[in-house]
Design goal:
The chain is an all-alpha fold. About 75% of the residues lie in helices and about 0% in strands. It is built from seven helices and no strands. α3 packs across α4 and α4 packs antiparallel against α6. The termini are far apart.
Length: about 150
Amino acid sequence: AGGRAWHFAVAWIVVGNALLWLIYLFTSGEWRRRFFWPPRDTRPAIAQIAHYLRLRKEAPPVDLYNSLQRMAYTSALALGVVEVLSGLVIYKPVQLQALGVLFGGYDGARLVHFAGLVALAGFVITHVIMVLLHPRSLGEMITGGKP
């Protein structure tokens, strides 16, 4: 029971932080630069993959993030929403039964919640690897821009 209490305490801090960040993004208009938009970002993302695989010499132009980064961050945000919703279904399966149908019931919500956790852990591990490969970018990762 104590572990579950800590889980919820940390989860609600993360949810609150995410809500404040989303409010800032939409009120400031920053979402246009930070979120993946398929008509704008699909082709540059493919070009970025080709650059990373050394199939293309020059990297595509970069604004705040490259298109592949935008896709990763937007996916992580969407995954966070799925994590919160599936977690709520696990927490209150009877009261949120209608929401649980989207996940295939209680057991489906547990599976989605766990798979989402694994995916978010992979996202964090990828960032740690990127810091190890490019240690000078640590400041930019923490502040969200050039120091």
